From TrEMBL:
GO molecular function, one term: metal ion binding
Official protein name in the record: cholesterol 7-desaturase
Subcellular location: Membrane
Source organism phylogeny: Eukaryota, Metazoa, Ecdysozoa, Nematoda, Chromadorea
Species per Swiss-Prot/TrEMBL record: Mesorhabditis spiculigera
Enzyme class: oxidoreductase
PROSITE patterns: RIESKE
Similarity section: Belongs to the cholesterol 7-desaturase family.
Pathway assignment: Hormone biosynthesis; Steroid hormone biosynthesis; dafachronic acid biosynthesis
Reaction equations catalysed: cholesterol + NADH + O2 + H(+) = 7-dehydrocholesterol + NAD(+) + 2 H2O; cholesterol + NADPH + O2 + H(+) = 7-dehydrocholesterol + NADP(+) + 2 H2O
């Protein structure tokens, strides 16, 4: 009897532990929590904040490309905005309002009422299915067209200028995207559907999110920089370690990653906005591969801000990581990794946290480096320059640039306003 009770208690404890550790991970790193090496004595408090601001002012950023490329960019995950809700969104240096109508449709519009400038995200509300009411005087605007459709106290006609800018948005694969083009051109391509995600056959397995200081091009360029994989990412990540603490001069650790891959551009005029990186990875002890640690990655970069990372983990299952880079300001990026797949929940949790720790090694580099327009490359560096030529298609003559005084050239506005 006692043995049976003990086994039952053990089974309950193991079940609780499994349920706890198999939850989808939600790992978020805010600006200032990572990427700066200020020493052990100034890791917290106001002094740290002042030092980070000082480093940002003194940093040499180099001769940067334009800061906002043309393309689709993720502004939210679908679950972040509920029906009849308004969510504040920052992108391209603008404060915008993401609206989900009563029927579930999403819209994006400027946040400020043209009447007297009230912010719609602070007290505004969704009315009449897909309209937004200003919290100041109750003016009502269509989230679709941006036009004012009602002024509660006005008996005459509505002024023709009573209109708010709206932006093209689409909801795909449980994410919401905005289209940007500096010359007002409508979308050049569509975002592909991932049927397993749309249908729900691949469940949500977790996410990570990082705020970082760099140019948005630096992040996807990593995919073409194959040489850094077997140096910066050679060793197994350890929780709590940052890149400044790693013994990077030890290039032959006993337990290590082995990476092998390539990068290429899709052929065809209608697919020129797509590039593909393939990467085979396995963990080794010495020169012996560890069973069940191999994975195959095929990453499709779709424009400047979207990467579909298709993973095959063999025994552990298959899935996709949506990797999104969103330029909120010229040198402020929000990077998200969201995992879906038929993957064991415990393995999924381990994988996405390990992926985040590897990514954070790059964050330390990006947060402190300068952009080198004409890099000094050797034969084994990988197709970095080829990637830059491919990425250049997302810039136009009028693409906004960052000036030395911190201002941005050109006017960032919706393509629907041209």
């Amino acid at each position: 009897m006692i043995l049976s009770i003990g086994l039952a208690i053990l089974a309950v404890i193991l079940t609780i532990l499994y349920l706890y550790f198999s939850r989808p991970i939600n790992y978020v790193v805010r600006m200032g929590e990572l990427g700066f090496n200020l020493g052990p004595s100034d890791s917290t408090g106001t002094y740290r904040e002042r030092q980070i601001e000082r480093l940002k002012r003194l940093r040499k950023v180099g001769e940067l490309p334009p800061v906002y490329p043309n393309g689709w960019f993720c502004i939210a995950e679908s679950g972040e905005v509920k029906a009849k809700e308004i969510k504040a969104v920052i992108v391209f240096g603008e404060q915008l309002s993401l609206i989900r109508a009563e029927d579930g449709q999403v819209y994006l519009m400027e946040s400020y009422c043209p009447h007297l400038g009230a912010n719609l995200t602070v007290g505004g509300k969704v009315v009449d299915n897909n309209c937004v009411q200003c919290p100041f005087h109750g003016w009502v605007f269509s989230a679709d067209s941006g036009k004012c459709v009602r002024i509660p106290y006005e008996k005459g006609s509505i002024p023709e200028q009573a209109k708010i800018s709206t932006w093209p948005v689409v909801e795909k694969n449980r994410h919401i995207y905005v289209w940007y083009h500096c010359d007002g051109e409508m979308p050049h391509w569509e975002i592909p559907d991932i049927d397993e995600v749309e249908s729900g056959s691949w469940p949500y397995r977790g996410r990570t999110e990082h705020e970082l200081l760099c140019h948005c091009q630096e992040i996807p360029e990593n995919g073409a920089d194959l040489a850094h994989l077997n140096y910066l990412h050679l060793q197994i990540p350890q929780a709590g370690n940052n890149v400044m603490e790693l013994k990077l001069n030890k290039t032959d650790p006993i337990l290590h990653h082995f990476w092998d891959g390539g990068w290429e551009v899709k052929n065809g005029e209608d697919e020129k906005h797509i590039s593909i990186m393939t990467l085979q990875q396995v963990m080794k002890i010495g020169d012996k591969a560890i069973p069940l640690t191999a994975s195959l990655l095929k990453a499709h970069q779709i424009g400047p801000g979207i990467v579909y990372m298709h993973f095959d983990f063999g025994f552990w299952g298959r899935g996709i990581v949506f990797h999104h880079v969103t330029p909120e300001e010229p040198l402020f990026q929000r990077a998200r990794f969201v995992l879906y797949g038929n993957i064991n929940p415990l393995f999924a949790r381990f994988f996405i946290k390990s992926e985040a720790l590897q990514f954070e090694r790059d964050v330390y580099i990006w947060s402190n480096k300068r952009y080198v327009k004409s890099p000094l490359l050797c034969r084994s560096d990988g197709p970095v320059q080829k990637h830059r030529r491919w990425y250049a298609q997302f810039y136009s003559q009028n693409s906004p640039r960052l000036l030395p005084d911190g201002t941005v050239t050109g006017q960032v506005k919706s393509v629907l306003d041209w």
